[in-house]
Design goal:
With 791 residues, the protein is an alpha/beta fold. The chain is 26% helix and 18% strand. The radius of gyration is 29 Å and the shape is globular. It starts with 24 loop residues before the first strand and ends with a helix.
């Protein structure tokens, strides 16, 4: 672990006529580099440089204050108390492992694994939610070849029907079982029959991700869309041997990426003996030379002999793994690293150790002996070895004279009865503190049945106490499993459905005014463009629209032709670059182009409905003329509750079912605050809205109506409630302050609901993805949908 004070005598890199020679060290962009051989150019360009250390005091300005503690719950462990209160009180998230895919029918779920999950899910979700803990299900695992084969077959073909079928099956399973999310665990890159020649490790980075790794990105993207408001995460290998099979774009579509830094030694026959989950990079590997079962073991790239260099088969560390996954200067023999933002990562803490005096025990089901050294569960270690929980250097050595494992060819016996490396409470907490310092989201723990809960010995308790979370957390709603499955927005037409007004949708304020489309930092209301907002779970958009013609003052040709444009506060501020209109190089968006964008996304997501609120500075004729330019199939998607022949809300005195809107292909709904036209309904006829601003200081938490002198007006049919929750001046910092789940729910429950007499149908916010690492507006939407579903 490096900091600038550790390298006060190392100079910054500069161009030198003589270049740099072997073992020379320099500082460059907050990292320390060592010349492996002569280097003339700067690090990151010249292959002569290798990354030696990172100056964390300079590279990690945003430490994590509240860490996720994520524990895996294996269905096959009969000694795990799935209803344990103490377990859920000490983790923030639980993940049930594993739900698999059917090998013989790609895209369908394996029913044996599905039954194993459903046999415990009610007990798990009920107990976990009472403690405020979220529960996901893990898809995949070490033997899910159905998952691997499916994604390999799909490859880059996002339109493959098997992929959509798989997404629908997983999404429905999550809804039916009231789960909070999905963890994608694609990992069996080895041959099913143990043929080492068919192992898919060692992939060169220049080849790009494995086809299955590419398809995993599309799978996550589609799954996130199918499960708005729910968690999607992924679990990946810690090093480049298998890590290069994944596509780092996966980070764009998940809430976090879990790095399995559990057993960086121990789990294969040619492993070097040493700490199986060391925290910091081990520079002097020769300290472990005498512990090996013979000469330093071979690698996949070299023979086993006494001259095999230790740096060719090193004892890796969590720090090595983080450099591979996130440091921009990492490179090894397979190529460069993955360059994922650290605030997207969590790292592994194992509740087990390896005894390097013995090989693994035979598998009780197959009778076969897996490769690698003997695994001991943490609770077994605590029972068998006095002081295991406080073992110095997380290592237990007992002298002896032990026969070598059968896969070792060295003569003689091993001079230890036990040589065990493990995780202890102290080593786990040190790991968490390091990860927090670097800005990671927290830790994953494999797995919860291995734990002991005695104070002072419990690893999980120690982690939770160091995580920054409160001693107790607010309970989450406990589903009534006796009733129909809990569902959220995004129900398919074929599932049990509720009326449209019995759903809640995530809504973005000034959706068009986003940084990706060229609005200035400090002036935009959102980070992502319209498509990316929809991909990330948004289902309702707010657009300001003006009819404009090109004028003499339009120096940047912002308005190339007369029409309706999405623009920001033109009436209030005039024409301001980056504020009222975007970077001209990006182009100001016409309303019909925005609607075509939404329609195109709906084409790709046939079970979704999108609602758009227009702050409207046009006439009805101007608005309808603009809509006439929308692609005809998307015009036909528009549903006007005032005049649609299939269902007029004022006549029916209710809203249509979500499943009916989907089956009718009426999945685009527009409301205007000014116009009432053939395609667009006047919002105050069908909606309630609270006054839009929290004020410049974010203190206006009262909830008066936007109209009718602050009073809410009902009708003889239910009105939709658009809950506005944002300030008059948007910033990333204030959105992060205003958007936490607890704040939004407090305002809804204790201010707005008392006045409106109903839950919101739309939760409108700025920068909906904030605050990072906390529950936010999407979680509010999921909670309200659960309440709607439960009646």
């Amino acid at each position: 672990m490096g900091s600038s004070k550790d390298y006060s005598n190392v100079a910054e890199w500069t161009t030198k006529d003589t270049g740099y020679h072997t073992d020379d060290m320099v500082r460059y962009k907050n990292n320390i580099f060592r010349a492996a051989y002569w280097a003339g150019k700067e690090p990151g360009v010249d292959p002569g440089w290798s990354l030696y250390d990172e100056l964390y005091d300079q590279t990690s300005p945003n430490p994590t204050t509240t860490a996720k503690i994520i524990g895996y719950l294996p269905t096959w462990r009969k000694d795990l108390d799935f209803g344990s209160a103490v377990m859920y009180q000490n983790i923030t998230h639980g993940i049930i492992a594993f739900l698999n895919f059917d090998e013989n029918n790609l895209g369908e779920l394996d029913q044996t694994s599905a039954k194993a999950v459903t046999s415990i899910v009610q007990q798990v979700v009920t107990a976990a939610h009472q403690a405020g803990t979220y529960i996901s299900v893990a898809i995949g695992g070490a033997v899910d070849y159905g998952f691997l084969n499916l994604l390999t077959a799909v490859g880059g073909n996002a339109s493959d029907a098997r992929l959509d079928k798989a997404v629908q099956n997983v999404a429905q399973f999550v809804k039916d079982n009231a789960l909070d999310g999905v963890d994608l665990d694609l990992e069996c890159w080895w041959d099913k029959n143990g043929d080492a020649s068919k192992d898919q490790g060692g992939r060169d980075k220049s080849k790009g991700p494995h086809p299955a790794g590419s398809a995993l990105v599309t799978f996550a993207q589609k799954l996130k869309s199918a499960l708005p408001g729910r968690l999607v995460s992924a679990t990946l290998f810690a090093t480049s041997w298998y890590g290069n099979s994944y596509d780092p774009k996966l980070a764009d579509y998940v809430d976090w990426l879990s790095i399995m830094s559990y057993d960086l030694t121990g789990s294969w026959n040619q492993t070097p003996i040493g700490p199986h989950t060391a925290l910091y990079k081990i520079r002097k590997q020769d300290q472990y030379k005498d512990e090996q079962q013979g000469p330093w073991p071979a690698t996949a790239r070299g023979p086993s002999n006494s001259s095999t260099p230790m740096d060719d088969n090193p004892i890796f560390s969590v720090e090595d793994s983080l450099w591979y996954w996130s440091n921009p200067f990492f490179v090894n023999w397979q190529g460069v690293g993955q360059k994922v933002a650290r605030n997207k990562l969590v790292a592994g803490v194992p509740l087990y150790g390896y005894d390097f005096a013995y090989k693994k025990d035979p598998d009780p089901e197959s009778g076969q002996t897996p490769p690698g050294y003997k695994v001991l569960r943490y609770k077994e270690l605590v029972q068998q070895f006095s002081g295991a929980s406080t073992a110095a250097n997380a290592n237990i050595k007992v002298s002896g004279n032990t026969a070598r494992p059968s896969f070792v060819s060295a003569p003689g016996t091993y001079p230890y009865a036990h040589n065990i490396y493990l995780e202890t409470p102290d080593s786990a907490v040190a790991k968490l503190k390091f990860l927090n310092q670097l800005g990671l989201q927290g830790v994953i723990i494999w797995e919860m049945s291995n734990e002991v809960w005695d104070d002072g010995k419990s690893i999980v308790k120690a982690l939770y106490q160091a995580s920054g979370n409160p001693a107790t957390r607010p309970a989450l709603p406990v589903p009534n499993f006796a009733n129909a499955p809990v569902q959220s927005a995004g129900d398919t037409a074929g599932s049990a459905s509720r009326p449209y007004n019995k759903y809640c949708f995530l809504c973005t304020h000034n959706s068009y005014k986003n940084l990706e489309d060229g609005y200035a930092t400090g002036a935009g209301n959102q980070t992502y463009n319209l498509t990316h907002q929809l991909e990330k779970g948004v289902r309702s958009l707010m657009l300001d629209i003006y009819y404009e013609e090109h004028g003499s003052g339009d120096l940047f040709n912002v308005i190339p032709a007369p029409g309706v444009y999405t623009l920001g506060e033109v009436n209030e501020h005039g024409w301001v670059y980056g504020t009222t209109y975007p970077d001209p190089a990006k182009g100001t968006i016409r309303l019909h182009d925005a609607l075509n964008t939404v329609g195109s996304w709906l084409d790709s997501n046939p079970n979704e409905v999108v609602t758009i609120f227009l702050e409207d500075y046009t006439t009805g004729d101007q608005l309808e003329a603009e809509i006439a330019l929308v692609n005809k199939p998307y015009q036909d998607m528009m549903y006007n509750p005032a005049n649609d022949s299939k269902w007029q809300v004022s006549d029916k005195k209710d809203w249509p079912l979500m499943s009916d809107l989907i089956s009718w292909k009426k999945r685009l709904i527009l409301f205007s605050d000014h116009n009432d036209t053939a395609h667009v309904a006047l919002d105050r006829h069908f909606t309630k809205q609270n006054y839009w601003s929290l004020g410049s200081n974010g203190t206006n938490w009262d909830c008066p109506s936007r109209w009718d002198k602050g009073q809410y007006q009902d009708a003889n049919y239910p009105k939709l409630f658009l809950f506005n929750h944002y300030r008059d001046v948007p910033t990333v910092a204030t959105a992060a302050l205003d958007n936490p789940y607890e704040k939004i729910m407090d305002r809804i429950e204790n201010r707005c609901q008392q006045l409106t007499k109903q839950l919101p149908n739309f939760v409108g916010v700025d920068f909906f993805e904030l605050p990072a690492n906390y529950r936010k507006a999407g979680d509010v939407v999921a909670e309200i949908n659960k309440r709607f579903a439960s009646g």
